[in-house]
Amino acid sequence: MNTKNAIIYVVDDDASICKSLSLLLNSNGFRVETFTCAEEFLAFKYPKLQSCLVLDIRMPNINGFALQGLMAQRGIITPIIFITGYGDISMSVQAMKAGAIDFLPKPFTEKKLLNAITLALSKSKVLNQKQTEIARIRQRINTLSPRELEVFQFVAQGMMNKNIASKRGTSLQTIKIHRGRVMQKMQAKTVTELIHLAQKAGITSSID
Fold this sequence. Notes:
Layout: E1 6-11, H1 15-27, E2 31-35, H2 38-43, E3 50-56, H3 64-74, E4 80-84, H4 89-97, E5 102-105, H5 110-141, H6 146-156, H7 161-168, H8 172-185, H9 191-201
Parallel strand pairs: 1-2, 1-3, 3-4, 4-5
Helix pairs in contact: 5-9, 6-8, 6-9, 7-8
């Protein structure tokens, strides 16, 4: 795996664990950033690179599960590998249900950790590509006028031109013009493609 542009975050309140994991991962070609508390990690300025987080569960103030929740709330898409010396099956299930890549009880082997990191970085690459695509779509959406955006939202619901015209009390020709501009600005060749762009961007399907 190409690790040149990948970064591994380690969050563990045991500084010796942070140091040993950093040495191990550095020796395998990874760039590593370590933190001894969740607050430090959340304050870090994340570069837009393939990444994953090796995260301890039992930590003061903000534990691993709480950090996982905060990351989801803040849109931090870095895949998580949990590590713990006090894990059980219920904790493993909770972590995996919330989207963790793996749950490794301490002590774990180098091979298990590296395998989990390989999987996490593969997922990170996909997530980053998706985020980049969404950002590009939203840039196009920002070029739409308020009326064009409104028409875009109606089209995303599968509404026909005549239905949109009727709902907005305007002429069919006016709606056709707006729709044509929407297609052009969104770089969509078909209505199906336009609907897919709306779905990817999370355009709401409900409008008054």
